[in-house]
Design a protein that fits this description.
alpha/beta
């Protein structure tokens, strides 16, 4: 040891230091601590995972201990090594059909070996960093796969609910269902019905007591209640049977045809990986909804998550457990229960181990019919109506339907392959579905191209273009988002030929060789869509900076924008013309969809009528996103004080009860004229319509003058005067007025709505969102991506 350490000669002029001046003093070993939020979250997840793990093992036909092994390994291994700290892994309902088919074909020990090989494949994919590629799979295929698995689970478990035994496939289960209905087991049906009733009604318990009781997971309550009733009534039913752990079957060498085993490994790898990666992305969205947590936890690292899932499957398969994937139900429960780190996931795995070792006598009291009812409910929930509406809105319902039917009738891998083939077919159909029309209006030939302009449409395009006579005035309208080289060359060659023969060509919508999303370039045009009308001088070419042409070619002075008709008719017409030429081709398809389906905005945005507030610009929103209500001063009259003007109350009721918006935002702004008028108004002044309206803002004025009531302030600086202080406080006050509306209060109690305040500083072009810090209402500014704090 001494030979490896160089010695240094003593220097009498050198002062020896034990530590550098900036080093902290040595401390003892760091103590491992678990946050209280992680402890409570792990208990909530454990109470959900325990019955579900047993139920999924029952549904697959595996030993029931295999579900507990997978739950423990998923919590400990995947929780420690995975890239999504708050995602909870374990036996997933999405793997039930795959695992059941493997057990039926190859037996349990070979299925465990397949799980190990699938884990090795996941490790390889994680090392190749292909995790992001899995997200390229169409959501319609993923949702269709899960829906098909859900149908398969529900139909199979229905036989156990009725007191029978499920068959090997959905068609066989459907054929055997009439005979099963003729021989129903009353005790099994009673226990299953009680389980389903508790599962359905427990989350809907009303009142304050209901809010407290709903913290107990519905799955635990359903299984526990059914077990207690079955035990008290003395019902003779098949129950959970957990053999001694000494007899637990571990993985063996895979036996069977090589191609079949390879297909089994690929199927297991595909389902485990896609479900886990999509679950990690979903957990990121849940974390983003909790203020302050996203900065602490961070986004999921998908390649690491794939490595963690692979390691967990290797361990689970080796120990005789089920295949493992990220589980949406447990993950969402983990986030909602307040977990702040991966310790909650790992601790839930420890609790599963303790339960598997010490709670065997209690677990063996659970009737199998109760677990079957629980898993059947999970299978039914996998057929999501929201997913069906989404794929229908995106015109991918055929992909969803083919994938679902393929999984139900043929199997998971075959169903996914059919879904991919259908998705490719739909994409090709959209690519080739180009409509080209020709019509003559007032001597002008219009050629309208709707859809993608590719080489497949070149013959039709060429045929229609040759219908245009030589020397004719022509307008070519391109209503699409893509043009390939062959179509570009065809259109460009015809353009040159036609103009050389004396004709004129105007290409609207987009210019050849440019993307449809790019603004058209006009010589000398420096305006943008948000600039004032007085700067929009790009309609026609100008011969001089301040003149425009009459039809006869002579110049005449441009009308004064401030004069009669200048700021009204001419500027409005120019703006509409610019919209029809530049913007309408881009939004026409989206507006047509909204016209067909109706509006489904997610937010009610209540702001001031000030002309400087462009809601779509400062929120980066588009058609159908916001339900906007504007009035002088962004005021929300208290219920009963409208005095004949129910417009704001009607808009709130319509947005909450009919449109089902998920949030309401009250947005104030700097330099608000209504707040200035309110400050200078007299207490009894209600003579004019404006004064009568501004009386709804008097509670905000009183709140500013009352030091005992918290108003609003901007983080990091003082308000720029009394007007800005009133503008900030007015947002806080109007949010309180909103809570007085019955529809808003009801939606807030049910957790269906959130209220948020916003302040926009016009001069700084800076948005601020309202947060609460130690009981104080603070507007914190929203930073752009990459903007320093």
């Amino acid at each position: 040891m001494s030979a490896c350490v160089p010695t240094r000669a003593a220097d009498p002029n050198r002062t020896e230091r034990t530590h550098p001046p900036h080093s902290p003093p040595p401390t003892g070993p760091r103590r491992f601590r678990i946050a209280g939020a992680d402890v409570s979250a792990s208990i909530a997840v454990f109470l959900i995972a325990l019955p579900l793990s047993l139920g999924i093992a029952l549904a697959t036909g595996a030993p029931l201990q295999a579900g507990l092994v997978a739950a423990a390994v998923g919590g400990l291994v995947a929780g420690r090594l995975g890239g999504s700290p708050l995602q909870v892994s374990g036996p997933a309902a999405g793997l039930t059909v795959v695992t059941a088919d493997l057990i039926l074909r190859y037996g349990w020990r070979t299925t465990c070996a397949i799980t190990v090989l699938a884990g090795l494949a996941q490790l390889g994919l994680g090392c190749l960093r292909v995790a992001r590629g899995a997200l390229a799979v169409s959501p319609a295929i993923v949702h269709g796969m899960l829906a098909g698995i859900g149908v398969t689970i529900a139909v199979a478990q229905l036989h156990i609910v009725l007191g029978g035994t499920p068959q090997s496939s959905v068609p066989d289960n459907l054929r055997a269902l009439p005979a099963q209905l003729a021989h129903v087991h009353p005790a099994a049906v009673s226990v299953s019905a009680l389980t389903l009733a508790l599962l359905l009604l427990w989350p809907r318990l009303p009142g304050r007591a209901g809010r407290l009781l709903r913290r107990i997971p519905a799955a635990l309550v359903a299984v526990t209640g059914a077990t207690a009733v079955a035990a008290l009534a003395g019902l003779r039913l098949p129950k959970v049977d957990l053999p001694s752990w000494s007899n637990h079957a571990l993985a063996g060498l895979p036996e069977g045809p090589v191609l079949g085993l390879v297909a089994a490994v690929l199927t297991t790898t595909l389902v485990c990986s896609v479900q886990s990666l999509l679950g990690a992305v979903a957990v990121d969205k849940l974390v983003a909804g909790r203020p302050g947590l996203s900065a602490h936890v961070g986004r999921s690292r998908l390649d690491r998550e794939l490595l963690g899932q692979g390691a967990a499957n290797i361990v689970s398969g080796s120990l005789g457990g089920l295949p493992i994937a990220g589980v949406a139900v447990r993950s969402s429960a983990n986030v909602h229960a307040g977990a702040v780190s991966r310790n909650s996931t790992m601790l839930h795995g420890v609790l599963v181990v303790i339960a598997a070792l010490l709670m065997v006598p209690l677990l063996e009291l659970i009737p199998l019919a109760s677990l079957a009812a629980l898993v059947m409910a999970v299978g039914i929930q996998m057929v999501s109506l929201n997913h069906i509406r989404t794929v229908t809105r995106h015109r991918e319902v055929w992909v969803y339907a083919v994938t679902t039917l393929g999984v139900v009738s043929l199997g998971v891998l075959e169903g996914v392959a059919l879904g991919i083939a259908m998705a490719v077919g739909v994409a090709l159909h959209r690519l080739t579905r180009t409509r080209i029309t020709h019509e003559v209006t007032e001597g002008v030939h219009h050629v309208h191209v709707r859809g993608q302009l590719t080489f497949l449409a070149v013959p039709r395009l060429s045929r229609v273009l040759h219908l245009v006579p030589h020397g004719a005035d022509t307008v070519v309208e391109l209503d699409g988002s893509f043009m390939d080289h062959a179509a570009y060359e065809t259109l460009q060659d015809w353009h040159k030929t036609h103009t050389a023969q004396g004709g004129t060509v105007e290409i609207a919508g987009r210019h050849p060789g440019t993307r449809v999303s790019e603004p058209q370039a006009f010589t000398g045009c420096r305006c943008r869509p948000w600039t004032p009308w007085r700067n929009h001088q790009c309609d026609r070419p100008r011969s001089a900076p301040h003149s425009e042409h009459d039809p006869d070619g002579t110049d005449r002075p441009e009308p004064d924008p401030t004069g009669p008709g200048g700021a009204s008719g001419h500027e409005l017409a120019r703006g509409i013309s610019a919209f029809q030429r530049n913007t309408a081709p881009l939004v026409r398809s989206e507006l047509a969809r909204l016209a067909r389906e109706g509006q489904r905005p997610s937010q009610l945005f209540l702001t001031c009528a000030d002309s400087r507030l462009v809601t779509s610009m400062i929120t980066s929103s588009g058609p159908g996103d916001l339900f906007v209500v504007r009035n002088v001063g962004n005021l929300v009259p208290l219920p009963g004080e409208e005095s004949g003007d129910d417009s704001v109350a009607a808009a709130i009721e319509y947005a909450v009860d009919v449109l089902k918006v998920r949030s309401i935002t009250v947005c104030g702004h700097s330099g608000c004229g209504a707040m200035q008028a309110l400050l200078s108004s007299e207490p009894g002044g209600t003579r004019t319509p404006l004064e009568r309206w501004l009386r709804h803002g008097r509670p905000s004025l009183e709140r500013v003058r009352d030091d005992s009531r918290p108003g609003g302030r901007i983080a990091g600086r003082a308000p720029e005067g009394a007007v800005e202080q009133l503008c900030l406080t007015n947002v806080v006050q109007q949010l309180e007025h909103l809570r007085a509306y019955d529809s808003v209060a009801r939606a807030l109690r049910n957790g269906e709505l959130e209220l948020q305040g916003m302040y926009f500083h016009v001069g700084e072009a800076q948005a601020y969102l309202l947060t609460e810090v130690d009981g104080d209402r603070v507007f914190d500014h929203v930073r752009a991506a990459g903007q320093p704090a």
